[in-house]
Amino acid sequence: MVEHTFSRATWLNSLHMSALTVALLQEEGIAACDLLAGSGISEQDLAELQKLVNPEQEQQVYANAVRLAPRPAVGLALGLRTRISAYGLLGYAMLSAPTFGEALRVGLSYPVLLGTYFRLALEQDGDIAWLTATGYSEDESLRAFNTEVCLGSLKVTFADLLGQPLPLHAVQVDYPSGGGMARPYARGFGCPVSFGANRSAIGFDAAWLTRRLPLADPVTHKEMLEQCRRQNVEFAARRAWLERVRGLLAARLADPPGLEELAKQMNCSSRSLRRHLAQQQTSYQQLLDELRFTRAKEMLQQGDIPIYRIAEALGFSETASLRHAFQRWSGQPPSHFRG
Question: Where does the chain cross the membrane (predicted)?
């Protein structure tokens, strides 16, 4: 069994899924600014698609989508729009694999490049192969949405790899059926769906694992695998480095180290620190703002902490400065995030 483990401590991702979410809901008449509220992501960020986002930012966009969507199973609609090209080099490595089974194993071998909120594993039970999605640890209220995105995108990935839809044996989800879920699930997956299972999984005839892929190419596959290996190592190193910077700042939000002091703690010059941050489409001030915003929302959710105490904890000299910061970060006052 090949397994992919999601690590919140080192995970950053592109704006691809946030942009797809906004585009989908805009078709329903929902404004982008409402979908991005509280995420620290701007419409300009979506236009440029350069910024990297952390799980909380992406999950805030998803939470807004669930709250604002006029219909159920919006996560499934989003997943069914996610093509294999969204995985970049990894997608091409999978497309050029010799067989369907090998393509899936390649995808599961590169956790940083795959980017998911689940542990994915390929299992075989008799004549049925199951791709399971377990280990979810994000907001419980978004479990269904994130599962829909995951399983829906897997269904599309299967079809992209094979050049034809893969007949599914069954789908299992580890949550109960909510209002109006059954019909879009049956239509979207095209197979029986079991709610309240002990895991979430998508099953199909195991014979498909040996099916040769239409775009199989050993030369391209070898080259793409090597590039994936290099990119995986590079991304993992960059993200671990960035998380160390974030950790140093997060430990001192009331009195954050300046750029020079932070650079010393990172054993580099301030110039190198700026350059490395820029390579990851961020900056000292952007990281500090994101960390302050996250901590402020956590404190506001507790409900009874006075705003002046929150301002002090985050290094603001007065509450007015914190209020202005909230407007800059989210376009909303602090009271919008009170628990």
Answer: none
Contact yes or no for 62/75 (Cβ under 8 A): yes
pLDDT digits (tens, 9 = 90+) for 229-239: 998 888 778 87
138-167 per-position pLDDT tens digit: 889 999 999 999 999 999 999 999 999 999
Which residues contact residue 11 at a Cβ distance below 8 angstroms, ignoring those fewer than 6 apart? 54, 55, 112, 115, 239
- CA 310 distance to own-chain centroid: 28
Residue where a domain terminates, one of 216, 232, 251: 216
Judge contact between 10 and 40, C-beta under 8 A: no
Residues 34-69: pLDDT tens digits? 999 988 899 999 998 887 788 888 999 999 999 999
Radius of gyration of the chain (CA): 22
| Residue 202 backbone phi and psi in degrees, to 5 | -125, 125
The answer to whether 156 and 35 have CB atoms below 8 angstroms apart is: no
DSSP string across 2-55: -EE---TTT--B-SHHHHHHHHHHHTTT--HHHHHTTTT--HHHHHH----B-H
The whole-number average pLDDT for the span 214-233 is 94
Terminal-residue alpha carbon distance, the chain = 42
212 lies in which domain range?
Answer: 3-216
Under 8 Å between Cβ of 111 and 229: no
Sign of the CA dihedral 304, 306, 310, 313?
Answer: negative
**pTM value?**
0.81
E strand or H helix that includes residue 205: strand 200-205
Confidence class for position 12, pLDDT limits 50, 70, 90: low
What's the CATH number where 290 sits?
A: 1.10.10.60
In total, how many domains does the chain have? 2
Are both 78 and 157 inside the same structural domain?
A: yes
